[in-house]
Amino acid sequence: MNDKDRINGFQREDLDRLKKELDANPDAGRFKLRAKNRWIDGAQSLNLVSSFYGMSREFSARSTPFIQTTDAPTVLLGKDVGPMPMEELLVALAASVTTTLSYRAALAGIQVEEIECEVEGDVDLQSVLDTTEVASRGFEQIRVNVRVKSEASEELLAALCAWSPVLESLKRPVPVTISVKKD
Amino acid sequence: MNDKDRINGFQREDLDRLKKELDANPDAGRFKLRAKNRWIDGAQSLNLVSSFYGMSREFSARSTPFIQTTDAPTVLLGKDVGPMPMEELLVALAASVTTTLSYRAALAGIQVEEIECEVEGDVDLQSVLDTTEVASRGFEQIRVNVRVKSEASEELLAALCAWSPVLESLKRPVPVTISVKKD
């Protein structure tokens, strides 16, 4: 295996095989992704990512499940032992833009050498914490700044970034159902 | 300090103080949250959460910045050393629902003993990976299941969960601007 078999860290033959698999069986692309959370105390909780459904089968557990702590900084009465859930949302967005660019550039035969992504979001926590408010407003505005080292034009690179599924999930309304059961 | 000074892991006097601070100075509630990402290779990248702006001042860095790896499972050509960015989005949602319930129950004087939250989201990765598609569609549907141990009614607990700012950020369209610069 030499360098021309690889692009952006992917094997070209793996990219071709995955694309053919999805073209031949579009249902394989229908994924169910999952996360679990368990409250510890105050603002702190533990999150687990392990199983998913995709490629027409169940992946019941990763060999190493991914465990993360979320919390709040002390000014918001947390112990500051993990990022806030809203910061996790920005992590998801930054990571998705970068990964999407790496993938889609590889599919288009465009080499990328470096990607860095910075995300900043505005939120009014008054609407979250104040009991006189009528509803939380979530993020009011999010700014994404991407720096890329590549031969391709900024316009083309921006078009590839825009494919991010997390970006789309934020820009468009997503139907979310919530069910609460008492033990 | 005894048990009646605390509710859901929060000091009652801290909750009162934070609420008074935000009521007296609504600008203090205007936060700017941030995340950074750096691409490693293929689907893998490193994420950093550290600084934020809030309570009318800059918190330039956490004592320990929060570093996380994101990746993809091997069926999606990753090395499976971290969750996918779309799974991170579900972590953000699960953690936000739990934390919001803990906070808002405490503000309302409602004791909660246990919270567990499971989230599942449907996404068609065909729209992300296939170059013949016109756009990524993001999450098509997300289901949140919360189990709570508390004296309060399911209706009231559900109303408190609905305050989650990550939930709102998904249900409503969020304006996101993206700028791509070449090095």
Summarize the entry for a quick read:
Two copies of one chain form a homodimer. The first copy, chain A, is an alpha+beta fold. Chain A has helices spanning 12-24, 85-107, 126-129, 154-161, 165-171, and strands spanning 6-7, 10-11, 30-41, 44-49, 52-54, 57-59, 66-70, 112-124, 139-150, 176-182.
Question: Please, could you describe this protein's structure?
Answer:
Two copies of one chain form a homodimer. Chain A is an alpha+beta fold. Chain A starts with 5 loop residues before the first strand and ends with a strand. In chain A, a hairpin with a 2-residue loop joins strand 5 and strand 6. Chain A is built from five helices and ten strands, in the order ββαβββββαβαβααβ. In chain A, strands 3-4-7 form a three-stranded antiparallel sheet, with no helix packed on it. In chain A, strands 1-2 form a two-stranded antiparallel ribbon. The first copy, chain A, folds into three domains: 1-29, no CATH class; 31-82, no CATH class; 83-171, K homology (KH) domain (GMP Synthetase, Chain A, domain 3, 2-Layer Sandwich). Chain A is 30% helix and 36% strand. The interface between A and B is large, with 132 and 131 residues. Strand 9 (139-150) of chain A pairs parallel with strand 10 of chain B, so a sheet runs across the interface.
The structural domain count of chain A equals 3
Largest sheet properties of chain A: 3 strands, antiparallel
Ranges of chain A where pLDDT stays below 50 over 5 or more residues in a row are: none
Beta-strand residue percentage of chain A: 35-45%
Instruction: Sketch the topology of chain A as an H/E string, one letter per element.
Output: EEHEEEEEHEHEHHE
| Quaternary form | homodimer
Shape, per Cα inertia axes of chain A: globular
What average pLDDT do the residues of chain A reach? 93
Helix content of chain A: 25-40%
The CATH superfamily name of the largest domain in chain A is: K homology (KH) domain
CATH architecture of the largest domain in chain A: 2-Layer Sandwich
Radius of gyration of chain A: 20 Å
Question: What topology, given as strand order, has the largest sheet of chain A?
Answer: 3-4-7
Q: If helices are DSSP runs of H or I spanning 4 or more residues, what is the number of helices of chain A?
A: 5
CATH class categorisation of the largest domain in chain A: Alpha Beta
CATH topology (level 3) name of the largest domain in chain A:
GMP Synthetase, Chain A, domain 3
Please give the number of β-strands of chain A. Answer: 10
Distance between the termini of chain A: 56 Å
Largest interface, with Cβ-Cβ < 8 Å? A-B, 132 and 131 residues
Structural class of chain A: alpha+beta
